[in-house]
Write a structure and sequence with these properties.
The chain is α+β, with helices and mostly antiparallel strands. The strands form 2 sheets. A 4-stranded antiparallel β-sheet has the order 3-4-6-5. A two-stranded antiparallel sheet has the order 1-2. It has 6 helices and 6 strands. Bound molecules: zinc ion (ZN). The site of zinc ion has 5 residues, from strand 4.
Length: 200
């Protein structure tokens, strides 16, 4: 079976590494100011649109987008050296298991003089919160919310957004589901539909 990274619901976490056959997605920049930060092209269009709608182009900046396996390895080993094991395993995905390798994830930061590359500030107030509230309408969800650490296996990350597309993002937000929970729900729906068909 051939996988592609264009499946917007592709699950990548420590138990689900990026399939090896998954090729790099078509990428696009979000802002000409940050030409090195790219995400999957449809996600980039939606994100640019959202930032424009909020007049937030100068207040919210992209910090990290698509990463190759090599880049993820580099970030992981740099963090191990600089921040130690505990921090790294909490905030940096093991190479092969990072959502950033799908091109569907973006770390965002409120524009500051200095922006932390691994943990940028993205508060629950002001323009960042307005962004967060509107994001599902543009297909984005806050991927690692507080309280879901056990489900996602990743610490609370207010800055990490994931493109899942519409209407998935709205449904997930409405129910308070993270991607793992939403995929379980879809699977159950499918199973009950299949068993329903058999009964008829
Ligand atoms: Zn991230």
């Amino acid at each position: 079976m051939k996988y592609t990274c264009t499946n917007h619901l592709l699950l990548v976490n420590r138990h689900h590494p990026l399939p090896e056959s998954c090729t790099a997605p078509d990428l696009a920049v979000i802002s000409p100011e940050f030409p090195s930060i790219q995400i999957q092209s449809e996600a980039a269009v939606m994100l640019t649109d959202l930032l424009r709608t909020l007049h937030a182009e100068d207040r919210i900046v992209p910090v990290s987008g698509y990463r190759t396996m090599e880049e993820q390895k580099q970030i992981f080993s740099d963090s191990l050296r600089e921040n130690g094991e505990e921090f790294t395993y909490q905030y940096v995905a093991v190479p092969g298991c990072s959502e950033h390798q799908t091109g569907l994830a973006i770390d965002l930061g409120e524009k500051r003089e200095e922006i932390d590359f691994i943990r940028p500030d993205f508060p629950y107030t002001g323009i960042c919160q307005t962004f967060r509230e509107l994001a599902p309408q543009y297909g984005f969800v806050e991927r690692y919310p507080k309280g879901k650490e056990e489900v996602t296996g990743i610490a609370w990350e207010p800055w990490h957004f994931r493109y899942v597309g519409c209407p998935h993002a709205q449904i997930m937000t409405e129910h308070g589901w993270v991607l793992e929970e939403y995929l379980d729900y879809l699977k159950e729906m499918q199973l009950s539909e299949e068993s329903g068909e058999e009964e008829q």
